[in-house]
Design a protein that fits this description.
The chain has 269 residues and is an alpha/beta fold. It has a single domain, classed as P-loop containing nucleotide triphosphate hydrolases (Rossmann fold). Strands 5-6-2-7-1-8-9-10 form an 8-stranded mixed beta sheet, sandwiched between helices. Strands 3-4 form a two-stranded antiparallel ribbon. The longest helix has 16 residues. 42% of the residues are buried.
């Protein structure tokens, strides 16, 4: 048997589980889902890290209000330069956005991008973590391939919205994760923006993006729907102001993320 192209994956010894949040489609709220998952795990008492692997469009610095004037600490460990992550709400956070101006375009080719992601993952002082949540860029390109083929990933969460336009691209991501050369278990699908419910009227539901998207994916690929997350004005306000904790003031959103965390915790891998 020819082992010339055998994939060798690295296991990070101090991190118990790496959970990847992905989608083949941009604009589905993937970064918000990843951040909400990390926040809920931290609130449950787990030690959590959050890696923003979206090199071209990092959102995590904005979501957690980590501005340009705050500089990362770099220390030497075993003869190597290691980065100290920022800590917000008990979460250790790392992003390429900490190194560049938010208005600056990152004009890098594939090899530079993948090397940067590897550095962010390996050269960060994560310490001992129960969970490292990785917010990946949209699509099925270099970053996703590098992470999946280079590191042991405990499971992937696929984010979609209900409308048909999102489903075609999300299916590509699922097919990639199920590829024999990738071999990453899919924990399930998260349907984000499932409906709009005003905070002052929690019993009302407006299906502004349609219905049933996640359920169709579940049936087509035999993977579970982990949770449906509604949208309301608190999410937008919290994201813009860098105070995502405010989203948990809405009971429906809090329960949706609690269902997601329970599914992650109960996944056996």
């Amino acid at each position: 048997m020819n082992n010339q192209h055998q994939i060798v994956k690295t296991k990070l010894p101090d991190i118990q589980k790496i959970i990847m949040v992905t989608s083949g489609k941009g604009g589905v709220g993937k970064s918000t889902v990843a951040s909400g998952l990390a926040l809920t795990l931290a609130r449950e008492g787990y030690s959590v890290g959050l890696l923003d692997a979206d090199i071209f469009g990092p959102s995590i610095p904005t979501l957690f209000k980590i501005k340009d004037e705050e500089r990362l600490t770099v220390m030497e460990k075993n003869g190597k330069q290691i980065m100290e992550p920022f800590n917000r709400f008990g979460i250790k956070i790392m992003s390429i956005g900490f190194f560049i101006d938010e208005k600056q375009a990152v004009i890098w080719r594939g090899p530079m991008v993948t090397n940067a992601v590897k550095q962010l993952l390996i050269e960060t002082e994560w310490g001992e973590l129960d969970y490292l949540i990785i917010d990946t860029p949209p699509g099925t390109g270099d970053v996703l391939i590098t992470l999946l083929q280079s590191f042991y990933v405990s499971g992937a969460i696929v984010v979609t919205t209900p409308q048909q336009m999102a489903l075609a691209d999300v299916q590509k991501a699922i097919n990639m994760l199920q590829d024999n050369h990738i071999g990453t278990p899919i924990l399930g699908v998260v349907e984000n923006m499932s409906w709009f419910t005003p905070t002052m009227h929690p019993q009302e539901k407006f299906f502004i993006f349609g219905e049933g998207g996640a359920q169709k994916l579940s049936e087509n690929f035999n993977i579970p729907v982990l949770t449906q997350i509604p949208i309301n004005e608190l999410i937008c306000q919290g994201a813009d102001k860098g105070n995502l904790k405010v989203i948990f003031e809405d009971l429906n959103i809090k329960l949706a993320f609690k269902r997601l965390v329970d599914a992650v915790i109960n996944h056996k891998k």
